[in-house]
Amino acid sequence: MKQLNSAQVRQMWLDFFEEKEHLILPSASLVPVNDPTLLWINSGVATLKKYFDGTEVPENPRLANSQKSIRTNDIENVGYTARHHTMFEMLGNFSIGDYNKVEAIPMAWEFLTGEKWLNFDPELLYVTYYPEDNETKEIWENIDGFDPTHLVAEEGNFWDIGAGPCGPNTEIFYDRGEAYNDLPEGDPENYPGGENERWLEIWNLVFSEFNHLPDGTYQPLPNKNVDTGMGLERVVSVIQDTPTNFETDLFMPIIKAIETYANGVEFETAEALKVSFKVIADHVRAVSFAISDGALPSNEGRGYILRRLIRRSVMHGRKLGIKGAFMSKLVPVIAEIMGDFYHELRQNMAFVQQVILNEEDRFHETIEAGETHLMDIIAELKSADKNEITGPQAFQLYDTFGFPLELTEEIAQDNNFTVDAAGFDVEMEAQRERARSARSQEESMSVQSAVLQTIDFDFEFVGYEQLSTNGTIKAIVINDELHDQLPARSEGWVFFNRSPFYAEMGGQVADNGAIFDGPDMLAEVLDVKKAPNGQFMHKLRTLEMPLNINQSYTLTVDRQARIKTNQNHTATHLLHKALKVVLGDHANQAGSYVGPDRLRFDFSHFGKVTDEELKQIASIVNYYIENAVDVDITEMSIDDAKALGAMALFGEKYGDVVRVVNIANESIELCGGTHVTNTNEIGTFKLISESGIGAGIRRIEALTGQAAIADYQAKEQLLTDVQAQLKVQQLDQLAHRIELMQEELKATHSKVESLSAKIMQQESDNLFNDVQTASDITFIGLKLDNQNMDGLRNLGDVWRQKAASNVLVLAAAQDDKANLMVLVDDETVAKGLKAGDLIKPLAKQIGGGGGGRPQMAQAGGKNPAGIDQMLSEIATEITNLMN
């Protein structure tokens, strides 16, 4: 076996498969692009689904990559096991309808055992296969140098994730020797393929041979594929002979850097604290890559995962004695280890550090709040003569404040308290179940279309230069079957040899228009999409006449719609530039919609864009429009484009020759869409809205041209109507008039409140007459009309002054809602009855919930009709709480 570092292993993999005529793909972003089924890119094949399910044909059917991936199903196991990671690198080689088992298995064996490559001892390699897959078994048995007694049939070796491609797989294991044996001899898992540390799985080869159809049946795939994956961290641990992945050169420099902040605690000697070193090293690596790829911490989606990873790391840092921010200081170490291959990490290093530092500082404030909350819980339990923190309370500390159970237990122990760990586990499992239910089906693929795969001919898109052309029908597809005719008054997909219609791509919608024969319109163009082999396929609805294969027709794009789309598309380029100028270089495009009606632009950013920033952004876009800048569009090599400073849009794949859209040498982007020739053609740009749509992603919607003018006119008419209603002579006096009206309304409201308080004071003797008793506690329950919380609070003040009872329950219906307030005097709180406890069961009667302090709590509900029933339950609930 050769002694190699991780970078050498990665490069050796890519070199090997390049020699085997594979196209080497760069690692895609961890943030999926145009794939709502995935939260993260979680495998090497995840970015290649369009090839595997047949929606696109690759330029080379042989592909290989080293793909950074994130999986978050087992975050709690990271650091405690030898091989769990949140982020890992998957070395993969793939065949899209090209070679299969007969070539894939010998290639794997050559890479593992060849003297030029890893040079593993063949005697240390074991293989599992699917029992019904005799072909794989025979191939392995005939591999020169492989011991057939090392072949193990394994029932689980069939890769199937639901609808789409599936098939048997074969896994390769490395025997690490008796020293790594962690199971007794008779254990059922003590074999190659079992859950043990001796035989380590290093490579999985999946042979996609079947379509798993939605009805549950399996059919042979039109194109059989190969999908293999080798975890870089695992194979490096074998080569470097380390007990876990964490002792390899991928992690040890990070761990050594952590030691410098750990007040003398060392990884090698602190056995009980090794988990904390591992957790931090794993999490900071994952977070650094994810932020570099455009993800940002937040309270939902992938942003919540980043926040959780950072908070877990900070808590483990505290175990090592690290009190201040430290994670951001580890980012340069990660860049040093992996930056030569993942250049984006070095390019974005300062930004990544700043994001992590901001999150660390924010969490340190949260920890203090969590400790305060925990001490409040302990004090409250002490007053109730209890000494156990409940499972839900411990879980709230974990979920809201990031407190791990161990920290809660530690603080509890210092205060002579225990923690209901079993109850905590119940809450944690419930959260996991909710996450599983909400999780998209990861790695889901479409079922291959055999018909679309077969359609292949030379196609020419002429829509950049002309909006009408003649084209000959080369194929007609109806319900996934080829036909020679698209009948009258029917719909189907039609392929022409030439077309001016733009297919939906890159956020730009497809053109619409019509198909003509001379002056006669024969069909409407409803949609246009890119077929697997690159041609444009047109969804047509015929009128009174059919369309026939091999006949020529005139294809005409809706000119007005295209012009409006061009305006909006060029405006998105200007908007992207303006966002980077105003907000910073991190404001990267994360999605877009460009149509004739409007434009929508999604981008990464920390928080809401301020009104002043929005004004600056719109001003910059309109500056370019007003200055009538030519839009220069040129085709050039990808290298020349990069040298020019062209911006490649997030996650897009580009060929050797690219189309560069250059506006004033300021906005330079790779783009295949359609555009205006001069920015002045856009007319004007008007921002409509700015909002958050997910984890660190903001959305701007805007109008251009005549649509923007129409919006201005509508707003102007609205102002004119308001001006007339308020009887204001001059428009510039409108704001002042509204201010005066608000002051008048505020004064009137204050008078009403004052009068209500006086009336309530006068009527309080009558209101507080009906005093009832439950468990030696006196209480009053009142139903009031149309009172808000302020009104209820004022009446509560009168009740306290009069000391009319021990408990007061006030309820009022207001605007189809119910307001509820519970007040308890100090004497009764000392007996153990608290307003916050009493209000919870009462609030359920009105369809709501609430809480508060021991002396006062308030709630809202959606069922005011339940107030009477609720008031009748007061005595029962007091009795329940006091017994």
From TrEMBL:
Residues annotated as binding Zn(2+) are H569, H573, C671, H675
This entry's comment on the bound cofactor is:
Binds 1 zinc ion per subunit.
Specify the Alanyl-transfer RNA synthetases family profile domain's residue ranges: 4-714
Q: Which domain of life is it from?
A: Bacteria
| GO MF term set | alanine-tRNA ligase activity; aminoacyl-tRNA deacylase activity; ATP binding; catalytic activity, acting on a protein; transferase activity; tRNA binding; zinc ion binding
Q: What are the record's GO terms for cellular component?
A: cytosol
Q: Report the EC code(s) recorded for this entry.
A: 6.1.1.7
Q: Where in the cell is it found?
A: Cytoplasm
Instruction: Name its co-factor(s).
Output: Zn(2+)
Q: What class of enzyme is it?
A: ligase
Principal localization reads cytoplasm
- List the catalytic activities from the record: tRNA(Ala) + L-alanine + ATP = L-alanyl-tRNA(Ala) + AMP + diphosphate
**Database matches in InterPro entries:** aa-tRNA-synth_II/BPL/LPL, Ala-tRNA-lgiase_IIc, Ala-tRNA-ligase_IIc_anticod-bd, Ala-tRNA-synth_IIc_core, Ala-tRNA-synth_IIc_N, Ala-tRNA_ligase, Ala_tRNA_ligase_euk/bac, DHHA1_dom
Task: Give the matching Gene3D superfamilies.
Answer: 2.40.30.130, 3.10.310.40, 3.30.54.20, 6.10.250.550, Bira Bifunctional Protein, Domain 2, Threonyl-trna Synthetase, Chain A, domain 2
Query: Which UniProt keywords are listed?
Result: Aminoacyl-tRNA synthetase, ATP-binding, Coiled coil, Cytoplasm, Ligase, Metal-binding, Nucleotide-binding, Protein biosynthesis, RNA-binding, tRNA-binding, Zinc
Segments forming a coiled coil: 724-758
Q: Name one GO biological process term.
A: alanyl-tRNA aminoacylation
Comment field on protein domains: Consists of three domains; the N-terminal catalytic domain, the editing domain and the C-terminal C-Ala domain. The editing domain removes incorrectly charged amino acids, while the C-Ala domain, along with tRNA(Ala), serves as a bridge to cooperatively bring together the editing and aminoacylation centers thus stimulating deacylation of misacylated tRNAs.
What's this protein's function?
Catalyzes the attachment of alanine to tRNA(Ala) in a two-step reaction: alanine is first activated by ATP to form Ala-AMP and then transferred to the acceptor end of tRNA(Ala). Also edits incorrectly charged Ser-tRNA(Ala) and Gly-tRNA(Ala) via its editing domain.
Similarity comment text for this entry: Belongs to the class-II aminoacyl-tRNA synthetase family.
Supply the name of the protein. Alanine--tRNA ligase
Q: Which gene encodes it?
A: alaS
